[in-house]
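Quick one:
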Amino acid sequence: PSFKDALMRNIDEINKLQQDAAQAVEDLQTGKGNFEGMLLAQNKADMAFKMLQAARNQVMRAYEEIQQMRV
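Output:
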């Protein structure tokens, strides 16, 4: 798999985690869920998003370094 495929797969996975977290909050508000489940879903989504941001920042730094290279 290419870098793009891996990145897109991870973005889709993070999107699903965020949707699951939103659903857990909604379930808690309607009495269908529990606090621990909601908290776990929120933490998973938050951690995954932070990891994606860190990867993005590393890619951007590498790109900026490449731009500054003299040929």
